[in-house]
Amino acid sequence: MDSTIIEIDDFKKGLNGTLSIGMVSSSGALLIKNTMSKFHKEYSGVKFSVQEGNTFKILELLNRGIIEVGIIRTPSNASSCNYKCMKKEPMIAAMTKKYSSDLEGNYISLKELSGNPLIFYRRFEQLIMDTCIESGFKSEVFCKNDDARTTLMLANAGFGIELVPKSAFELSCNENLIYKEIKNEKLETSLAAIWIKDKYMSSLADRFIKCFN
């Protein structure tokens, strides 16, 4: 057996400590399924300390040194940070049956939602409002909030149509919902790992970012 492989495996088993990360609410399902699961398999001795909040909170935690890595969504304007992004995913419109009777197929244009009450979190407010206007209508907003899970729960209760990244659909109760992908490149988004430029990074954070894809 190759001695190099043994040394690497022994190192992984022996690596321990706690990695402090921050994440936005819409990142949880995809981050846990992909990066965190992969990282834990390789470095099972490492624990996590997780802070949750909106993008502004995550940037504040990074700048204060409370976390080493932040997980946010694009688009973002965090000029003080380095980025590593996952592949883009579409936004979806999730709704109860009473809102879907006139919407055929698995894909829709944003304009097809005109006249319906929309639910979304503030992170995407300006992007959604601007894209609605470009699509030829002014959006009817039922609720803006700060958490993807709240958005899901409100839509599941029948208050309106939620707009969220596709991977966020599994974050909360959705048994009453169906979803349709929105055909609009401007509403595509991706998860991004961010860290402060030109700042010391621990070996745990460095390895976590390498697993992020």
Entry keywords:
5-stranded mixed β-sheet; 213 residues; D-Maltodextrin-Binding Protein, domain 2; single chain; 7 helices; disordered N terminus; alpha/beta; 6-stranded mixed β-sheet
- Give the overall shape: elongated
Describe the biggest sheet? 6 strands, mixed
Structural class: alpha/beta
Strand percentage lies at 25-35%
Within the CATH hierarchy, at the fold level, what is the topology of the largest domain?
D-Maltodextrin-Binding Protein, domain 2
Q: How far apart are the termini?
A: 30 Å
How much helix, percentage-wise, in residues? Answer: 25-40%
The radius of gyration is 19 Å
Structure commentary:
With 213 residues, the protein is α/β, with parallel strands linked by helices. The chain has 2 domains: 107 residues, Periplasmic binding protein-like II (D-Maltodextrin-Binding Protein, domain 2, 3-Layer(aba) Sandwich), CATH 3.40.190; 97 residues, Periplasmic binding protein-like II (D-Maltodextrin-Binding Protein, domain 2), CATH 3.40.190. The chain is built from 7 helices and 11 strands. The strands form 2 sheets. It has a 6-stranded mixed beta sheet with strand order 6-10-5-9-7-8. It has a 5-stranded mixed beta sheet with strand order 2-1-3-11-4, sandwiched between helices. Strand 1, helix 2 and strand 2 form a beta-alpha-beta unit. The longest helix has 15 residues. It is elongated. The two termini are 30 Å apart. The relative contact order is 0.22. The N terminus is likely disordered.
Task: Give a quick precis of the structure.
Helix content is 32%, strand content 27%.
